[in-house]
Amino acid sequence: MELEPRMFSFNSPQGACPECNGLGTILKINEGKIIAPALTLSEGL
After folding, report:
1. How many whole angstroms separate alpha carbon 36 and alpha carbon 38?
2. Would you say 37 and 43 are in contact if contact means Cβ atoms under 8 Å apart?
3. What region does 22 belong to: left with phi over 0, alpha with psi -120 to 50, or beta?
4. Are 16 and 10 in contact (CB under 8 A)?
5. Helices assigned H by DSSP within 1-45
6. In b/e form, how buried is each residue of 2-38, taking b as 16+ CB within 10 angstroms?
7. Dist. CA 16–CA 6, nearest whole Å
8. How far apart are CA 45 and CA 19, in angstroms?
């Protein structure tokens, strides 16, 4: 594969990070902040 300038650009699909799609951030859910297994439903409200 030959190198091209677009491979080094985050604005181009060819150069974008496959994990963050070129945005620079990855959104993930931290279940530990959402679910508190030590609390019942009434205590967690």
Report:
1. 6
2. no
3. left
4. yes
5. 31-34, 41-44
6. eeeeeeeeeeeeeebeeeeeeeeeeeeeeeeeeeeee
7. 9
8. 35
Question: What confidence tier does 44 reach under pLDDT thresholds 50, 70, 90?
Answer: low
pLDDT digits (tens, 9 = 90+) for 12-39: 777 777 888 777 888 888 887 777 778 7
Query: Encoding tokens for residue 28?
Result: 């993930």
What is the amino acid identity at position 34? Answer: I
Distance (Å, whole) CA 40 – CA 3: 57
DSSP state of 39: S
Question: What is the number of other CB atoms lying within 10 angstroms of the CB of residue 41?
Answer: 6
